[in-house]
Amino acid sequence: MFRCFVLSLALAFALASCGPTPRKKEPGLAELYEAAPRGPLPGGVRPTAYEMDLTIDPRKERFGGTVTIDLEFDKPADGVWLHGQGLEIRDVRVTSELLEDESATWRDVLNSGVAWINFPRRVSSGSAEVSIRYTAPFDANLAGLFKVEEQGNAYALAKSESIQARRFMPGFDEPRFKAPFDITLTVPEDAMAISNTPVERVETLEEEGLTRVVFETTRPLPTYLLSLGVGPFDEVEGPALSPNEVRATPVPLTGYTRQGKGSEISYALMMTEPMVSFFERQLGVPYPYEKLDIIAAPQWPSGATELAAAITYRESRILYGANSGPAARRSLLNIHSHELAHMWFGDLVTPPWWDDLWLKEGFASWATGIVLADMEPEGGYELDAVADSISAMALDSLASARAVREPITMNEDIRNAYDSITYDKGLAVIAMVDSYFGAETFRPALGRYIERFEDSVADSPQFFEVIAEETGEPDLTTAFRSFVEQSGLPVIDAGLQCREGRTPEVTLSQSRYQPLGSPIEESRRWTVPFCMIAASGERRERVCTMMSEPELTLPLEALDSCPDWVMPNAGGAGYWRFTMPEAQWALLAVNFASLEPGEAMVAIDSARASFEAGQLSLPLLMAITNAGTRHEERQVIEEAVRTYAGLYQAVADEEAARAGFESEVSRVFRPRLAAAAGSGRDRDRIITSRLEGFLARTGNDQTLREDFARAANAYVGRPVEGDVRPLTSDDFATALAIGFQEGGEPFLNAMLASLSDIDDPTYEQAVAYAIGQNRDPELLPIILDLTMSGKLGTRETYTIMAGQMRQKPTQAAAWRWLQSNYPEFVTRIPGQRPRSTPRLASDLCSPAAIDELEALFETHGDLAPGYERALAEARESIELCIALEKERGAEIRTYFAGFAPSETAPDSSN
User: Fold this and answer.
1) What is the structure's pLDDT at 560?
2) CB under 8 Å to 191, separation ≥6 — which residues?
3) Most buried pick, 68, 187, 477, 614, via CB within 10 A?
4) Residues 587 and 507 in one domain
5) Structure confidence at residue 94 (pLDDT)
6) In terms of DSSP bridges, do strands 192-194 and 210-215 run parallel, antiparallel, or are they unpaired?
7) Alpha carbon distance 412, 389 (integer Å)
8) Which of 484, 513, 545 is the last residue before a domain boundary?
């Protein structure tokens, strides 16, 4: 019945007539609500050009203006579905073959920003123009066109991605609708105006204090790539991007920061040209825009957004000052190269809908490691990609995990695609294919894909078609699709078989990985581009096969005797976990030093996963992990840290087990810390920072805690006797957290007061992190009052609550408060965060917590549109925690209690 009603209404809206028709009765809101598209807009109409003329003064509370859209109708229509959210529509005019500047009606229909414009009469197929005059308030929670104040100056910035452009302009807010924009901004005369193209002209207005800035016409863009920025920015001219063998003309390069921060964007500008030229050479496609702006936003809800030719960053991610540490430098290079890659992957060629988000985010994530490895071959950036792959596997282990290319049918579900599956699994699958088939086969095909679809859109089937044509490798697209189009990850069981007089062989079987307590039931099969290492003495043999069956036997024909050990993921390049008989794990532990760094990382992860699946003993897990603590490469050491951090929850509440855990952490990590300390190499400085932080926070190392606390007190202006260690940005979070844990409310007050004197965005973030690390339940009410006071930013509010929900001493009280105050809490966090709030409960570990979590969102789910995905993942995380504690918790505590100092060891005389 519903389907018939909707079809009838659609026919009423769209059927042709034979000439001008009289004014018709407008559909009622109930009719519109039933017919409104919950996901993609209906076909039959598309924008061909936009004119945007807005007045933006960030010193005021509202902005406004007119947006005019040229439309092309495939058939006659009574109106048009489009997007606009929170806009106060003053006037709508429509012009077509049959209508001459006549008034039309705007109706807000869905809370997701779907609206209907009802025409006074039916328009014929062909061209039409709709002009919409409106005003709107600046957003208060970093969504759409928002304003922020820093150091007494006001700035307005537009966060358009993913579906936030509709918050500041009416339009077709979907990636498939690409059209050129003519943008004009009227702004205060002492403010700068920034958009996606160079300024064409500036006009002085008779109205005192305002100027009119007209920008050049853009290339075809979707609305999510629009950039608008107004304020008293520092403008820093960078070195123009020089012509090269791919691009014939220079490209102006400019940095923008809030006042007083201009010098700190110089490093990012300096590093831009080698990144851009690398992408141009690799793809054979020139940088596509007439300029390149690097904008450091005083506040930004995400790390950065690839607004076309006007990339916008949260300032803490792109500014680099005298106090910035080596980890901050790596972070800058990573995010900057990622956003620059988007100029081709996403901006020039755009996915038509959000289920193909991986075509831009996965490729930009993968390209990050490729370009940085070219620029700094000894930097270990390829290992960062392996770490990202391992992070994706953690989420992909859930039954509730998304597929990389997961169907998205509702606007409310779009932001859920921005997760580790899209970014990191996308990266991992691309890297796996690149490694197996070879860069010389795969990468040239990417350039042809970009050329074929430039200024247009392309979905996954179109991408696969081009790649298959260009590479001539049908298995390549088969492997791609098997990992992209289904959720979960394979675990490959590798059993070495050596028989007298026969070629050694490995029996392989694949299944979907599932940890203890997992509700996963269905079996799945992947086309796995499988490569492994078989080693005898110093000899390493790489053996590969395309594994599409559930089981196969792989002969090790290059070896004439049984190998000493096997590693079922060569180079760590494959997106799978592996398991083996314990005897093979033991041999791998003994020969751990022979593994390449990426192999060492995935070995630790696979051992950890096997333990969590109930298939590996704890002593063997720790043997593999502890071997990793001695490795030269930071990323391997961090995988070892991850194992210990994951086991901490099981020992946190039992004194002897916790004391033994702390003792063992000191024993295994202190030697590696000593080896790295004092080195001037960036790698060792980062290792030192990470290990000191882990030992002080989780390992409860009293010497380090005192050292950090003294340094933090000095930094916030409290009296300290004697010399203290210097702090870089890499140390802020650890030092301030420990300073607060040790110093309590007096330290908190001094730290908050220091924010007015220390104008450093990284420091501001570290303050929020530190407050979230509070372990004193008596301070929790003070902290919660602070977060609700509005004195801190919306991002900081979320950071603090997330931290308190992870700290054992404050977790229960913070959870009770959140349940009681949820409606107010969601008004204090960034606009794109409410859907993620179920994840705040992910570290809870009781059946009661599951019931409470479900009850909270049954009551308040309407305040967090799109929460269902996060709720399913959080609920499952709690279930897995309960199962792991039940099956292995006592084993973990017994193991670590054995390392406890004698004064805390349990009495075994009874």
Assistant:
1) 83
2) 57, 58, 230, 231, 232
3) 187
4) yes
5) 97
6) unpaired
7) 27
8) 484
Which residues 6+ apart lie within 8 Å of 745 measured at CB? Answer: 779, 782
Q: What is the pLDDT of residue 3?
A: 38
d(CA 879, CA 844): 9
- What tokens were used for 248? 């014939």
Specify the residue for token string 């599956």: 421
How far, in Å, CA of 560 to CA of 556, rounded? Answer: 8
Residue 208's pLDDT is what? 82
196-200, long-range: CB < 8 A, 24+ apart: 196/221, 196/225, 196/226, 196/227, 196/289, 196/307, 196/308, 196/309, 196/310, 197/289, 197/290, 197/291, 197/309, 198/252, 198/290, 198/291
Q: Exposed/middle/buried for 323, CB within 10 Å: 0-12, 13-18, 19+?
A: middle
Model-level pTM?
A: 0.94
Looking at residue 451, which CATH number applies to its domain?
A: 1.10.390.10
What pLDDT does residue 6 have?
Answer: 40
Nearest residue to 333 via CA among 304, 361, 368, 303? 368
User: In the chain, how many domains are there?
Assistant: 2
pLDDT 10s digits, 545-563: 999 999 999 999 988 899 9
Per the listing, tokens 């490798």 go with: 473
Of 520, 451, 458, 452, the residue nearest 491 (C-alpha): 520
Residue pLDDT, tens place only, 266-324: 999 999 999 999 999 999 999 999 999 999 999 999 999 999 999 999 999 999 999 99
pLDDT for the residue numbered 680: 83
**Do the Cβ atoms of 860 and 624 come closer than 8 Å?**
no
Instruction: Report the distance separating Cα 369 and Cα 363, nearest Å.
Output: 10
d(CA 406, CA 484): 9
- List Cβ neighbours of 87 (8 Å cut-off, separation of 6 or more): 134, 135, 136, 167, 168, 169, 170
pLDDT at 304: 97
Question: For the domain that residue 519 is a member of, what is the CATH number?
Answer: 2.60.40.1910
> What does the block give as tokens for 615?
């298939």
Instruction: Tell me if residue 737 falls in helix, strand or coil.
Output: helix
Per-residue tokens: 357: 């988000």
Three-class DSSP category at 154: strand
With a cut of 50, list the residues of the chain below it in pLDDT: 1-19, 908-910
Q: Which domain holds residue 560?
A: 489-591
If you ran DSSP here, which 8-state letter would residue 345 be given?
Answer: B
How far is the C-alpha of 39 from the C-alpha of 175, rounded, in Å?
12
Final residue belonging to a domain, choices 453, 484, 515 = 484
